[in-house]
Amino acid sequence: MSTEGRTARTPSRETLSDPSYQAFLVLRTVFTVAPILFGLDKFANLLTDWPGYLAPWINNIVPGSGQDAMYIIGVIEIVAGIAVAMIPRYGALVVVAWLAGIILNLLTLSGFYDVALRDFGLLVAALALARLATKYAPARHTTGDVSAEKK
């Protein structure tokens, strides 16, 4: 069987059966889909009343109402999900930073400590995705031919 047609973007059968690669795929999928869906819901408020999750001190420093802030947050979440899909190595770090901000917000808002703890678990999972992506979705090099340098 020839591997000439195989590219770096086409995983081999061995790679697909690798548990680490499977974990990477699961995390990449979840951290692509969930932020996009949550971001879209910031515009519809179907899952919950999102402005109720905004700490008053943050609401006081963002322009407009709490719902206006949720529109901005929704766009950021959608962009983060797309970044994970396209460049998971760096998109996952965007999600880590974003979740850290959410946790800070929730810790300063009484009564949401359980949600903050859950989001901490998500932050750790996003960090694991970033680490796995260094192996399974390495940064692209635009200068020079990397394969020629290895010879």
Jot down its keywords.
mainly alpha; 151 residues
Describe it for me?
The chain has 7 helices and no strands. 70% of the residues lie in helices and 0% in strands. Helix 2 packs antiparallel against helix 4 and helix 2 packs across helix 6 (113-136). Residues 1-6 and 144-151 have low confidence and may be disordered. It has helices at 13-16, 19-44, 56-61, 66-86, 88-107, 113-136, 146-150.
Brief synopsis:
The chain is mainly α and 151 residues long.
Estimate percent helicity.
over 70%
Give the N-to-C terminal Cα separation: 24 Å
Order of helices and strands: HHHHHHH
Structural class: mainly alpha
Give the overall shape. Answer: elongated
Q: Cα-atom Rg, whole angstroms? A: 19 Å
Largest sheet: none
Helical stretch count?
7
Number of strands: 0
What topology does this entry show?
Elements: H1 13-16, H2 19-44, H3 56-61, H4 66-86, H5 88-107, H6 113-136, H7 146-150
